[in-house]
Amino acid sequence: MAHIIDGKVISVQIKDEVKSMAEELSAKGIEPCLAVILVGDNPASQVYVRNKKKACEYCGIKSLSYELSAETTEEELLSLIDELNAHKECNGILVQLPLPKHIDENKVLLRILPEKDVDGFHPYNAGLLSIGKADLKACTPAGCIELIKRSGVDITGRNCVVVGRSNIVGKPVGMLLLAENGTVTTCHSKTKDIKAVCKEADILVAAVGIPKFVKGDMVKEGACVIDVGINRMDNGKLCGDVDFDEVCKKAGYITPVPGGVGPMTIAMLMNNCIVACRKQNNL
Ligand code: NDP
């Protein structure tokens, strides 16, 4: 039976570390500050934004909240971003996705100054990640690495397989595993014999968006399996991209859904706020 990696516990450890870093900054007269922008009234986004604000409060990070109507124009949103880019006290800008259809998400994300891009989505930060020099790393991928390392699993020299190549999860996870000296293979919808590739993995990261995609017979005995998937089932319950009941009998380590990667995303966002704040204050 696999060791279950508890993302709730690890995310609290990280938030506690962030809290003490925020206290150190505060002792120097610096208050880390995150601006959170929500456009429209998507209920899931409202919950995410509320959780981000709560995490800021826990960590001692000031949050500025902008809740805009669904009719907000692209120009209005871009001009708010310009204002926040110029705002000296605001260290990070987070635009909750998805945006209403009439707003071009790429244009909005590109407008955020890279040094305030605490989500790590800006192409500049994605580029730095690919050359191993990123300060602001995409939160969910960075959270996966923390889960692996803090569980005592060594990445160096291990076979790492990532299923999924999206710009927000699959690709950056692969880059980060490579930076940790893993031997990385990325799979996607055109990969041939994905089962054989996955079976070679000492560390397997699933970011596919298909419930229970990774089955027990795709996993090597003792592997570390990180499930990024969040799929809402018809019964309202959340399900990962890994068939937990089958895989936990083979894996050495496994993350549950919920309670695995999910809580890490916000913890890493909080960490990025401190990184951005320090950098902007030349610390
Ligand atoms: P995307 O839909 O953007 O990407 C899915 C990837 O999976 C694509 O690269 C796709 O390949 C690949 N894929 C799809 N079908 C198959 C298949 N049959 N075999 C092999 N590969 C396949 O999803 P995201 O990366 O945005 O998200 C992945 C999952 O992670 C989702 O469940 C999402 O909800 C969750 N998520 C969780 C977060 C968290 O905080 N825990 C944050 C972000 C996402 P191709 O490129 O060829 O199409």
Each distinct ligand: NADPH dihydro-nicotinamide-adenine-dinucleotide phosphate
Q: What structural class do you assign from the helix and strand content? A: alpha/beta
DSSP strand count: 11
Strand order of the largest sheet: 1-11-8-7-5-6
What's the end-to-end separation, in Å? 45 Å
Uncertain segments are none
Content of β-strand: 15-25%
Keywords:
283 residues, alpha/beta, 3-stranded parallel sheet, binds NADPH dihydro-nicotinamide-adenine-dinucleotide phosphate
Outline:
By secondary structure, the protein is α/β, with parallel strands linked by helices. Helix content is 41%, strand content 16%. It has 10 helices and 11 strands.
Characterise the protein shown here:
The protein has a 6-stranded parallel β-sheet with strand order 1-11-8-7-5-6. It has a 3-stranded parallel β-sheet with strand order 3-2-4, sandwiched between helices. A two-stranded antiparallel ribbon has the order 9-10. It is α/β, with parallel strands linked by helices. The chain contains 10 helices and 11 strands. Helix content is 41%, strand content 16%. The site of NADPH dihydro-nicotinamide-adenine-dinucleotide phosphate has 26 residues, from α10.
